[in-house]
Amino acid sequence: MNIFRNLINKFKRNSSRIHYQRRNKNFEKDSDTYSVTSRIRNFFKSRTKLGIIAILMIIVGITLAIFIRNLIAWFEFQPQPSSYSEITSKDNWDGSSKFTILFIGTDMVDAEHVFIDHLSIYSLDPRENKLSIFILNPDIKVTQTTLGYTLHYRTLLNNRSIDEDKITLLLSSIENLLAIKIDRYLMAEKNSFPTFSQFLNPLKVNVPKEINDEDTIRFPAHEVLSWDKGLQQVLPINFVEFAASDENGRDDQFQRQQLLLESITYNLMGFRSILYFPELIKSFEHNIFTDLGKWELFKLSAKLTSLKNGDIKKGYLRGAAYEKVIDLGFYDAVTPDINLIDKDINNIFFDLKVFKEQARIEVLNGSGVRGLAFNRARWVRNIGARVIQVGNSYETVEKTSIYCQEPEKYQITIAELQRFLGDEVEVITKDYPNRHVGDIVVVLGVN
Prior knowledge:
By secondary structure, this protein is an alpha/beta fold.
């Protein structure tokens, strides 16, 4: 019996030893397998990290290369003035005051015949972070006694009877017509503009009416282009055709132009404009003409990129505000209704902060130039100020002056008056010496 029990115990011990050995071998195999898998996993983890680092380094390198390339192009860039003007580039806008630019679009038939096809006002108010866009009819013909000329804007550049600087004359005329201050101009020619605009970003524009104008074949793309009503894509190379089509009438054309300018403004910064920045500003230098300084352009662009939806007010001179007149030239000519112009302008350029100051303003003519007080009173009203009296001063004065006993109450109003009356205007912080009822008395001088 003992012998039998011993055999059984011996068998159990052998079975346990065999089981232990097998389990040990399996554990060693599992350990080896785990070790290999772990090594492979760690290998790929390290490779992934290296790959991510490499990709980030490539992105940083490309970004840095683009930045350096753009920076070099910027420092080599120099805006060019128009050959039609002796106005030199300025660089004195500090980026904090209201800044208004006249956009001029031309059509060069040949070297001797250059016509104005587009006129618009582009006015930035940095205090409110607002932009105003207003489209004018280039067929306007006006007689302005303060300038001594009858001008047809479309044909002005071809008028050989005018010896003066034609761009300066155009700026002064439009200032008088709209009763607003214009600080700079920017001019582009229809046929060369696509060379510049090709580097801008494609746009989505809400087209008011379907466009299918066969006359677009005469424009730079040399093909008939069409756009359906509604939200449509407009390619940079076709901006001219989109803006120039007048198949649906002038009001529709001007409405489209204001929408195009609005959309270009909101989409200034984009992939194409950043990637092709050197080509963009080089093309600007050769195809766009302006008296804007380089750093004024920089400040303006920076301010514009901060605009959000709703920050742009826009309008155009509606057909109801002018009527056709007889003109011997090839092009139509229209004469505007000043009262209706002021209504359209006031909706766009009205300054709420000036209005809130509620200054009562008198405008007196001491220049001897007939009608000047009435003209400048329009300027005052169009900024949102309240004119209570227009008349003549008791005597002729050399220098324009602003009388105000409490200027601290009307700081914004006085700043706007100084802006459009000129740098030489004198602010006198005391009451106007003669009889008056206004909080502010503007006396227009010979200068």
